[in-house]
Amino acid sequence: MLRFLVRRALGAIVILVLISAVTYFLFFALPADPALLSCGKNCGPQEVALIHHNLGLDQPIPVQYWHYMVGLFVGRDMPIGHCDAPCFGFSFANQQPVWDIIKDRYPDTLTLAIMGAAIFLTIGVGLGLISAAKQGKLFDKIASGVSLTGQSVQIYFIGPLAIYVLADQLGWLDHGHDVDWAHNPVGSITGMLLPALVMSVIFWSNYSRQTRSLMVEQLSEEHVRTARAKGMSSRYVFFRYALRGAMGPIVTIFGIDLGSVFGGAIITETTFGLHGIGQLAVQAVLQTDLPLEMGVMLFGATAIVIFNVLIDASYAFIDPRVRLA
Amino acid sequence: MTTLTRPEGQASSQDAGAPFLSVRDLYVQFATEDGTVKAVDGLSFDLERGRTLGIVGESGSGKSVTNLAVLGLHNPRNTTISGEIVLDGQELTGASSRTLEKLRGNKMAMIFQDSLTALSPYYTVGRQISEPFRKHTGASKKEGRDRAIEMLRKVGIPQPQTRVDDYPHQFSGGMRQRAMIALALVCDPELLIADEPTTALDVTVQAQILDLLKDLQQETGTAIIFITHDLGVVANVCDDVLVMYAGRCVERGSVREILKTPQHPYAWGLLSSIPRLSASVDVPLQPIKGTPPSLLNPPSGCPFHPRCAFRDQVGGTRCQDERPPLALEHGRGSACHLPAEQKQSIFAERIQPLLGQAG
């Protein structure tokens, strides 16, 4: 088991290195010159060359990449100043250390991700389980319809709608604002409730549909029939046998979704004006800010890769056949 | 009352009072998108304690459906069951799910065919065996585990103390089937339904499992329903045989009667399609022509008439129009319009030579 995890972790590192290389080299395929952005209007060739030198852009791209990667682990001295490990460099746009920017933005993303995931998992799996237990009944039909609708709507549609109804008209929830755990922990939670709820809609519909169909399939499995033939109660069979069998795939999609929400939720953050990682990513791309882009990209990729390894590890707990293979 | 001796050749065991298991006019119908499937169509049979009834027939003839109905395992959402199933004086059709839960795994148990899919991959063999025991007897975890070990030992699993904590996939096919039997027998059921318990196994393991079942029956006097399409197995373990076709019983009798002097053309077909080790390799097997009928729309009259080679000898269109009754005499009979003497002569002249047995 340990060997398996070590192998998976090594593979994950290889993937991250590949992603970083591809991102880095692709950036230079863009026609925009980042030096021009930070140079203002009357910028002569000399100034551009100086900025290029300051940003390290005058060196060959592979050398730049190498310095970047080394800096991640040991820190590096740059013309603009020293940068401690993990050094993601300085933003081209505002000369701040990228790592500091990410750290500053991350609480929003983290809070939104955790609250959203908790909501979509609970509602999604819960609805799916009830639908499976009440196959073909009214609840099942309504839930299927709601799920289908949930999956087809867009956050930028239900977001404003939810703000208007739940916040403006009914006043039940906050409008949604950035978190500030140090000074206002309660407000951090209430401010993130509405965004988390809205974000969860597009996810939970998927969970309820998946859970329902997995459970329906499991309930017709022969080992479930055997459990019934043993005289176990239908509740016991439902949760201990059928749900147990449906758990693997649910955990798999949950892990993938977790990776993606921890990497930033671009549309939700933009809709609610939150300053999280997703919004940062948009900003970085718009400003052709390579260090920021790299930082955000690596951050999101790491989240996804970590959750993938965690899924693999959790499989060993869920399915004894994997444990011994 | 527990009978350990098996009367040979005498099918009807005339115990005083009602039989242990009595199935009367059982109909099982499934509602599907294409229409109603008449999976079991007016089936009746009785079973006494300590005896083994074999149910034979092609795939889709309603063997398994019948027995799932006895256990009440059909999905009530799309299944209609009518008729009577009486187990030891207790009516099972229409019984509450609570009542059935108390009986299942306790008084009546089932051995399923494919132990790889029939056992949950997520729990240890020991847990799966002890679950029904703990539920029905209220035993503790420790007692349940001890019982599981005892059962595994009984069915011949080596080192049961350690194997009890294994998962089903760590068992070989034969061992898994034994574990499945241990699971079914853990509460000493009075009725055991074995649904092709040996079909997926090789012949040596098959023989061991059959011996095991026979021994356990000797010990406890369990009534066994043995579903199979293997007539060799039937000859080995059964006292009585019920031949099913299209959800109906087409022939009933003692195992000797069915195998030596079958009366129904379908039973003749079944017997002539078995390869025999002693037969000459030049004699071709005689498969039954055609395929089993669709139960969505079963043939009128005798359901076997489209495939029957002898329907011309009945005369007229009786086979197409009239459903032949199962005329039982001392538990022996067949549902066929051919007159008894004619059946005897056809069997003696045309079928027996194929079977290679001396009259």
UniProtKB/TrEMBL annotation, chain A:
<protein>
    <submittedName>
        <fullName>ABC transporter permease</fullName>
    </submittedName>
</protein>
<feature type="transmembrane region" description="Helical">
    <location>
        <begin position="110"/>
        <end position="130"/>
    </location>
</feature>
<keyword id="KW-0472">Membrane</keyword>
<feature type="transmembrane region" description="Helical">
    <location>
        <begin position="296"/>
        <end position="318"/>
    </location>
</feature>
<feature type="transmembrane region" description="Helical">
    <location>
        <begin position="142"/>
        <end position="166"/>
    </location>
</feature>
<keyword id="KW-1133">Transmembrane helix</keyword>
<dbReference type="Pfam" id="PF19300">
    <property type="entry name" value="BPD_transp_1_N"/>
</dbReference>
<dbReference type="Pfam" id="PF00528">
    <property type="entry name" value="BPD_transp_1"/>
</dbReference>
<feature type="domain" description="ABC transmembrane type-1">
    <location>
        <begin position="106"/>
        <end position="315"/>
    </location>
</feature>
<comment type="similarity">
    <text>Belongs to the binding-protein-dependent transport system permease family.</text>
</comment>
<feature type="transmembrane region" description="Helical">
    <location>
        <begin position="241"/>
        <end position="267"/>
    </location>
</feature>
<keyword id="KW-0813">Transport</keyword>
<dbReference type="InterPro" id="IPR045621">
    <property type="entry name" value="BPD_transp_1_N"/>
</dbReference>
<dbReference type="InterPro" id="IPR000515">
    <property type="entry name" value="MetI-like"/>
</dbReference>
<feature type="transmembrane region" description="Helical">
    <location>
        <begin position="186"/>
        <end position="205"/>
    </location>
</feature>
<feature type="transmembrane region" description="Helical">
    <location>
        <begin position="9"/>
        <end position="30"/>
    </location>
</feature>
<dbReference type="InterPro" id="IPR035906">
    <property type="entry name" value="MetI-like_sf"/>
</dbReference>
<keyword id="KW-1003">Cell membrane</keyword>
<keyword id="KW-0812">Transmembrane</keyword>
From TrEMBL, chain B:
<dbReference type="InterPro" id="IPR017871">
    <property type="entry name" value="ABC_transporter-like_CS"/>
</dbReference>
<dbReference type="GO" id="GO:0005524">
    <property type="term" value="F:ATP binding"/>
</dbReference>
<dbReference type="InterPro" id="IPR003593">
    <property type="entry name" value="AAA+_ATPase"/>
</dbReference>
<keyword id="KW-0067">ATP-binding</keyword>
<protein>
    <submittedName>
        <fullName>ABC transporter ATP-binding protein</fullName>
    </submittedName>
</protein>
<dbReference type="InterPro" id="IPR013563">
    <property type="entry name" value="Oligopep_ABC_C"/>
</dbReference>
<keyword id="KW-1003">Cell membrane</keyword>
<keyword id="KW-0472">Membrane</keyword>
<dbReference type="Pfam" id="PF00005">
    <property type="entry name" value="ABC_tran"/>
</dbReference>
<feature type="domain" description="ABC transporter">
    <location>
        <begin position="21"/>
        <end position="271"/>
    </location>
</feature>
<dbReference type="InterPro" id="IPR027417">
    <property type="entry name" value="P-loop_NTPase"/>
</dbReference>
<dbReference type="InterPro" id="IPR050388">
    <property type="entry name" value="ABC_Ni/Peptide_Import"/>
</dbReference>
<comment type="similarity">
    <text>Belongs to the ABC transporter superfamily.</text>
</comment>
<dbReference type="InterPro" id="IPR003439">
    <property type="entry name" value="ABC_transporter-like_ATP-bd"/>
</dbReference>
<keyword id="KW-0813">Transport</keyword>
<dbReference type="Pfam" id="PF08352">
    <property type="entry name" value="oligo_HPY"/>
</dbReference>
<keyword id="KW-0547">Nucleotide-binding</keyword>
